[in-house]
Design brief:
The complex is a heterodimer of chains A (about 170) and B (about 180).
Chain A: H1 2-24, H2 27-46, E1 49-51, E2 58-60, H3 66-73, H4 94-97, E3 100-105, E4 108-112, H5 123-132, H6 142-162
Antiparallel strand pairs in A: 1-2, 3-4
Helix pairs in contact in A: 1-6, 2-6
Chain B: E1 7-11, H1 19-38, H2 53-56, H3 59-63, H4 79-83, E2 85-90, E3 93-97, H5 103-113, H6 133-149, H7 154-163
Helix pairs in contact in B: 1-6, 1-7
The chains are: A mainly alpha (about 170), B mainly alpha (about 180).
C-alpha cells in the first residue's frame, strides 16, 4: 500500500518536473533569455569589444579612422553613449538599440538588428557592413554563454521552487 | 607586479563521499558567492565601498546602465562572476576560484586587493567566507550533509544542471539590406 502511494507521489513529482522543464523552454522564458542576451551584446559592444567567433574571447573593436573621428566631432546627433574617438559601433545608437528577439522556436532564439536609422539605412545593412569591416559583434563569447547558462538555471531553479519541487 | 592566483579551499566533510555530491556542494558555494556579490556584499557580508565619483561620471558607468549611488555589484559585463568556478576536487578539498592567468583572475585580484594597494578605496574582497560569513559556509555544508544522509536529490539538482555541458549553438546570420522585421 505504502509502496503504491510512493509510486504515485513519485509519478506526480516527475510530472511536475517535466512541466517545469517545459515551462523553462516556453515562450516567456525564451523571451527573457533573448532580452538578457541583447543586453549583454549591447553593453559589451558599447564598451568597445567585439567577439570574432562564437565562444571566443572578446577583443577590442578595430579603431576608427582619423577622418571618421573628425566627422564625428562635428556630428550633431552623436549618441551620449559614445565619444568621437571611441570605436563602439555607436553613432546615433540606433543599430544597437534596434537589436530584437526576432523569433524563438525549436529551442532557438534569433536576435537581429531591425528597422532603419534616421537616414533611412537599414540597421541590418549597417551590422553587415561593420562585420565586413572586421568589427564583428553579433556573436557570443564563452563568458556570455556561461552567463546565459547561469541565467537559465536561475530561472529553472525559481520554477522548481514555485512548484515546490525543491 | 602580476595578479595573484585568486582561489580558496573548502574542506569537505567525510559524510559527503561521491564526486557528484562534492561538486554539488562546490556549485552551491559558487552560486552563493555570485548572488552575495550581486547584492553588493563582501566576504564578511558587509557592504562594498561605494563607487568613486570619477567612475560614476564615466562613460563605462553609463554604458553599463548603472545608476549613481547604487551599491557596487562587480558586474559591468558579468564575465568575472561567470568565470568563478570549482577548479578542482581533491580528496576532502574543494578548490574554488579562477583559472590562474585568466583575465577574470586579474580582475578578481584587483577587486580583492584594491588593485594591489593602488586603489585602496576600491578594495572589494568578494571571494571566500570571513567573519560572520563563516557561519553561512557552515550552514551550506550542513545542508548538503543532511541532503546526502536523507538521499535528498533536490539539493543536487541545481549543481547537476550547472555542471552539465549545455551545448549552445550560435549561428551568425546577417544579410545586407535585410529588414528582419518583415521576414
Amino acid at each position: 500500500m505504502a509502496s503504491q502511494k510512493n509510486k504515485e507521489n513519485m509519478a506526480r513529482w516527475v510530472a511536475k518536473l517535466n512541466g517545469a522543464v517545459m515551462d523553462a523552454s516556453g515562450p516567456e522564458h525564451m523571451k527573457a533569455i533573448g532580452a538578457f542576451l541583447i543586453q549583454k551584446i549591447a553593453v559589451r559592444t558599447r564598451l568597445g569589444y567585439g567577439v570574432k567567433d562564437n565562444l571566443a574571447e572578446k577583443s577590442k573593436l578595430k579603431k576608427l579612422s582619423n577622418p571618421y573621428k573628425e566627422f564625428r566631432k562635428s556630428y550633431p546627433f552623436l549618441s551620449d553613449l559614445t565619444t568621437p574617438n571611441k570605436s563602439n559601433l555607436t553613432k546615433t545608437g540606433s543599430m544597437i538599440d534596434s537589436l530584437k528577439v526576432k523569433d524563438f522556436r525549436k529551442n532557438a532564439i534569433r536576435i537581429g538588428p531591425t528597422g532603419f536609422d534616421r537616414d533611412g539605412v537599414s540597421n541590418s545593412s549597417k551590422a553587415f557592413w561593420q562585420e565586413k569591416m572586421g568589427r564583428v559583434f553579433l556573436r557570443l563569447s564563452a563568458q556570455e554563454v556561461k552567463q546565459v547558462r547561469i541565467f537559465w538555471i536561475r530561472q529553472f531553479s525559481d520554477l522548481l521552487k514555485k512548484e515546490n519541487l525543491v | 607586479m602580476g595578479a595573484k592566483w585568486q582561489r580558496f579551499d573548502v574542506v569537505i566533510p567525510k559524510a559527503i563521499k561521491s564526486t557528484k555530491d562534492k561538486l554539488a556542494l562546490g556549485e552551491h558555494i559558487v552560486e552563493y558567492i555570485r548572488q552575495r556579490t550581486e547584492k553588493g556584499k563582501d566576504n564578511e557580508y558587509k557592504n562594498f565601498p561605494k563607487y568613486s565619483d570619477k567612475y560614476e561620471a564615466s562613460l563605462d558607468f553609463k554604458i553599463g546602465g548603472k545608476s549613481k549611488g547604487q551599491r557596487p555589484d562587480l558586474k559591468l559585463t558579468g564575465d568575472m562572476l561567470a568565470d568563478l568556478q570549482v577548479l578542482s576536487i581533491r580528496g576532502d578539498k574543494l578548490l574554488i576560484g579562477y583559472k590562474n592567468g585568466s583575465k577574470s583572475n586579474a580582475k578578481a585580484d584587483g577587486h580583492q586587493t584594491g588593485w594591489q594597494g593602488q586603489r585602496p578605496n576600491a578594495e572589494r574582497p568578494f571571494l571566500g567566507f570571513e567573519g560572520s560569513e563563516k557561519a553561512k559556509l557552515k550552514s551550506i555544508i550542513k545542508e548538503h550533509v543532511a541532503a546526502v544522509k536523507d538521499d535528498d536529490t533536490s539539493l543536487r539538482a541545481y549543481a547537476y544542471l550547472s555542471a552539465k555541458d549545455i551545448k549552445t549553438k550560435v549561428k551568425p546570420r546577417i544579410k545586407p539590406d535585410e529588414t528582419l522585421d518583415e521576414d
